[in-house]
Amino acid sequence: MTERTPKVSWTPEEDANLMKLIKEHGTSWAIIASRFVHRDAKSCKNRHQYLKRRSIEWTDEEDSKLRQAVEDNRKAFNEYWKLIAEKIPNKTWQQCEKRWNSIPKLKK
Q: What is the pTM of this model?
């Protein structure tokens, strides 16, 4: 049986390095993982997905895309926010709905 490596929390420096490596190598997880001492490809991929989900900053471009997506999808009530989120990379449907309801300028 293979010994498992103990879980070690990601440091802010590792997060920054991960994002830098993704910009350089895309999502070539094996290449990226080779630049870390105690991280494998799966760990790097999972951390990247976590960081994307927790990203709460919105750009003007994302706000514009959100406004357009809401307008384009008003009739699809049941799947409304899921359809909208598909048009805004790195944002979940919950983040889109929350942003829409919290920023009055978007509704103009």
A: 0.49
